[in-house]
Write a structure and sequence with these properties.
The structure is a homodimer.
Chain A: E1 4-15, E2 18-28, E3 34-39, H1 43-54, E4 58-61, E5 66-70, E6 72-78, H2 93-106, H3 111-127, E7 130-136, H4 141-154, E8 157-164, H5 180-195, E9 205-211, H6 219-232, E10 237-240, H7 244-254, H8 258-264, E11 273-276, H9 282-291, E12 294-297, H10 299-305, H11 312-317, E13 321-324, H12 336-352, H13 360-363, H14 372-379, H15 381-387, E14 402-406, H16 426-436, E15 442-447, E16 450-454
Parallel strand pairs in A: 1-4, 1-5, 6-7, 7-8, 8-9, 10-11, 11-12, 12-13
Antiparallel strand pairs in A: 1-2, 2-3, 5-14, 14-15, 15-16
Helix pairs in contact in A: 3-4, 4-5, 5-6, 12-14, 12-16, 14-16
Chain lengths: 460, 460
């Protein structure tokens, strides 16, 4: 890969409560990592441009309506539910699982069914600006490995989990692991196979230990997976305290909350991704923080299946890693940006409450609001930091995982600042992007400096 | 205009709780109205196709991934807030009004500022599939009339209101009517001017009597506008019981709720559009029903500025006309479909409640859910029926206000049914469209048979 330079507006999530928008010069090295980002017009920026000119490097100047931002991180996607995205959300959870979701996932026993689904999904996620994704696949080794290969081929940074689920009380006969031993052996083989994939020497695609959730797994399986994750030094993902039903079920079976149960099984480790977590207590959050695990907040899905809004500010204030998940197909959108806007909206609805029959003073949970700047962090650096990935910000040494947004693209619902609005207020620009981004705005997408979607702007 | 025929999938909102998806033959007459819609393969459909062949009419066959649906009706748009769309939502209402919104609206005193804003807005709404819009303009006659002319030029069916606001207690000196008499005379001139616009003989663009909301208007102005609306037989729009603050303010000033106060002033009539209405009581709804007025539900905006969710099922069950509003820029999206999906999501969050610290049994307001089929109705026929317009369904005699959706368009986030999913379940297809529609999916838009956006598919 050749080094290149991009000059123009850069939106950078600096911290969970601070983003900047600065006219910048960004230097991307031959290894796909950011060599430097400097404010335009500074001596350092001039030196980079000089260096580029002397070495014949491609320099791309953005238009005033264009900007660079980090790629999105999607911490929770059920890959096999892709064909069901935006369908069946009117069903109750049990019916949704038994009549639609489990039968659909069971079809992935056939790699010929899986191949076009996974190909379409990976290409669509990239086209929506997702550069890092965390996938639940299915219990099927061959098609799950196919998913890993599909991510690698298209250049999507991904974590892929072979799902483990063995409890006959919840899992249908046609779609569950045959035994604890079978599930553990399959998971170990899958971890080795993903790590050994040709072209995966840089670790772009990583395996994940993936107990579906406590209600779907026997104690033996959960314990075995905890041990396996430690032995293989492998990240873990699962669902956690999602809904009243699930939270109560775990308490009845184990006597404790999900986090404590997971911790006893060795499943709460640095980098463990806990989807949903709506019903975590302060103690749960302290434990998650102590272990260095993360929450994948899935605000659209939670409106349909959780029955409550995750008090995300609490998790943030407890020091817990937090990112966003689309939770396809419990969530209907493949766009992390749409989920980011929904995170802000849902936080407002938690803050104010929703029922006009109650007096304002007792309607909501004041202090729960999020800003769009917070949501940008969740959608980008929050997610990559949770996974321990050096990406998600424009900072020296981080991978160049980025999106070129064109606010003046034909078909844009983001308004370029053509009516005299200020164009240097990061919060406003971030808000416009997260609220109204559409596929026409996503001009180019890079992962580790490799163009993975759109137009190659660095080729003259 | 020449008659034409379209053959293919048609999604039709039959009632608030019923939509159909049928392979159809739609015959559009020279007057832009639907002559007939027949199920494909029936003798009636064959007769229409025969007739078309004999008369050399254009016949367009949709692909299996394409479908026709009614255009969207947006019952509440603040046209001058267009440049602020997707900005400033983090501000409290008072700051938002005083520091951002009123100063922005005041700029429309200059028609040269208004012209490009209104042009961009009308084109963008059409591109998002909106075929009927109800606008608050500003207090300025010239630029408000310019808005009406802009709608007419681009073919958008519209209701345009010259805003009336005269109370110095709330309205800044630089942006309010000089007196009751001035406001009434301006409104009367505006009504006559819109009705007399060249090219508006068919009434595509209609004036509306538009008191901003009770807190911004003196009693004299409200009474005068009520009398004027009756004299001119002109529809009315205003805000109603939007937030705790507004609702309480009106109760303190008038001793009654908004609906009763509006009714006393003669402002609650057949076709009056009441934006928001979150805090309406059962008595309010009964009164609104008795008068034949309508509610414009604005679910995105309400999350930011109302502090509660309108219990829309209650309004529907009380027989009140209900439609959707984007409420730009209190709402951030120009898309009625995005608001329709949010209506379903918000209803779930009203139903379940949002605060996980409360027990499930007392968290929400059960019985509040909406389906996507309900939301389709709100987004289309609910809105046009509220306004007394014969459009919004594929039925003989209605205006052909329609969108051609292409689910296989490059850049689509709607998944065409390519993985074996059933494609005849209207609820699922409606859900996919409302959840994931983007501008790439909106191939052609018609108002009264006139192509107002996209590709002219009826020209060979």
């Amino acid at each position: 890969m050749d080094e290149f330079i991009i000059r123009g507006h850069v939106v950078n999530p600096v911290a969970i409560d601070r983003a900047t928008m600065t006219d910048s010069v960004v230097h991307v090295g031959a290894d796909g990592r950011i060599v430097a980002r400097h404010d335009a017009g500074t001596p350092m920026a001039a030196r980079v441009l000089d260096h580029a000119a002397r070495h014949g490097m491609a320099v791309h100047a953005l238009s005033p309506a264009q900007l660079l931002m980090p790629g999105f991180a999607d911490l929770h996607v059920h890959a096999p539910q892709w064909p069901q995205m935006g369908r069946a959300l009117d069903l109750p959870l049990r019916e949704w699982l038994e009549q639609r979701t489990f039968p659909l996932e069971a079809r992935f026993a056939d790699p010929a069914f899986a191949a076009p689904v996974y190909d379409e999904m990976v290409r669509t996620l990239l086209a929506n600006g997702t550069t890092t994704a965390v996938f639940f696949a299915t219990i099927h080794e061959e098609s799950s490995l196919l998913l890993a290969r599909t991510c690698l081929r298209h250049g999507l940074r991904a974590h892929v989990g072979l799902v483990a689920m063995d409890d006959p009380a919840l899992c249908p006969p046609a779609y569950r692991n045959a035994s604890v031993e079978q599930a553990l052996a399959a998971t170990r083989r899958f971890i080795h196979a993903v790590r050994a994939l040709p072209g995966n020497e840089g670790g772009l695609v990583r395996p994940m230990v993936t107990p579906r959730f406590i209600p779907a797994c026997t104690d033996g399986l959960l314990q075995g997976l905890g041990t396996l994750a430690a032995e293989e030094d492998c990240l873990i993902q699962t669902h956690c305290s999602e809904s009243d039903w699930e939270h109560d079920y775990v308490r009845q079976r184990t006597g404790v909350n999900d986090t404590v149960a997971l911790d006893r099984f060795g499943l709460l480790r640095r980098g463990t991704v806990l989807a949903h977590s709506c019903f975590m207590t302060a103690d749960d959050m302290a434990l998650v923080h102590a272990r260095g695990a993360a929450i994948a907040h899935c605000p659209i899905s939670n409106a349909y299946f959780a029955g409550a809004v995750l008090p995300l500010r609490r998790a943030w204030q407890a020091g817990v890693h937090v990112g966003l998940g689309t939770d396809i197909s419990g969530g209907y959108s493949p766009s992390v940006a749409v989920n980011a806007a929904m995170a802000v909206t849902a936080a407002r609805m938690l803050d104010s409450g929703t029922d006009p029959d109650r007096p304002a003073a007792t309607r909501g949970a004041p202090g729960s609001r999020l800003t769009f700047t917070n949501a940008l962090w969740l959608a980008t650096r929050g997610g990559t930091a949770a996974l321990g990935i050096d990406a998600g910000q424009f900072a020296a040494g981080q991978a160049f995982d980025a999106i070129l947004i064109d606010r003046a693209a034909p078909g844009s619902n983001i308004l370029p600042p053509t009516h005299g609005e200020p164009d240097n207020v990061a919060e406003d620009v971030v808000q416009q992007i997260l609220c109204n981004i559409g596929r026409p705005n996503i001009y180019t997408v890079w992962v580790t400096g490799r163009k993975v979607h759109g137009t190659d702007v660095t080729v003259a």
